[in-house]
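Box 3.1 A note on notation
Throughout this textbook, protein chains are presented in two layers. The first layer is the amino acid sequence; the second is a token string describing backbone geometry. Keep the layers aligned when reading.
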Amino acid sequence: MGETLPNQRRNRIVSLRFLTATLGFSLCVAALSSSRAYASESESDVQLAIVDKYVDATHVQEKNLRGLQMEVDIDAHLPKLEKRGKLRALRKISILGKITYKALGFSGDDTVKQEVITRYLAAESAARENGTIAITPANYKFRYAGRLVQHGVTTQILDVTPRKKQVGLFKGQIWIDAASGMPVREIGQFVKTPSVFLKKIAFVRDYEIRNGVAFPSHIQSTVDTRIVGRAELEISFSNFTREESADDDAPVDSTSDSGETPTPAQPQPAAQPVGALQEIETNGTAAGPQL
């Protein structure tokens, strides 16, 4: 009898300790789950807010880019064939959103001109004629990937996945200026190529924000072609001006790379004939992904 009581006490102590440990573990799990739910909800809130701000900003961007013309330098390289070519062109965006290229000069190998640059610009036309390609919730799924702070400027990063496999849509990331909602960088690969001659198009597209509006600055692209293999392109934009016929109601920073502000009707160099690249039109709008 004397031995039974200590055993019962011992069992009760063990049971009490087990119950305490179990309760403590349950509380920890509940707190952790609550923390995760809160973090997920917080991320979701940030995602929704930045997406809405970005969509609104791109509407402003589109309005400000219409009626502009700019010089474009396309430097293409075929590493396997060791061939290069460089096109200088005038890119115009009408007030209705139609984009045209007028060649100002070409130097280099004709293979690069015909099989790379011409097909690349034609792919832009095909992508835009195929329908809307704007980066919106209707076309893409968004996932918050984090933020980057440099020199006091915060950039929000979102992963984007197209809702359907359509020409002009891509899978990758968009970097957004947190203050203005304007695009800073777009990185990705098109989910469907607009031409049977192109197997894959990957790109890094950079923008420069001037007076609160994002202007195209530089594109680095890699194109896998079926005829001449891998092609590398560097595209630079400069000398933004507004034509006299454009709608001047929308403010625009037309400062050139030299820091000077050109007149609205700054004269452009005479175009030099370069075969099929003399003039190419695309019927899409200025906003959204651009090849």
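The radius of gyration is 28 Å. The domain at 57-282 is CATH 2.50.20 (outer membrane lipoprotein receptor (LolB), chain A).
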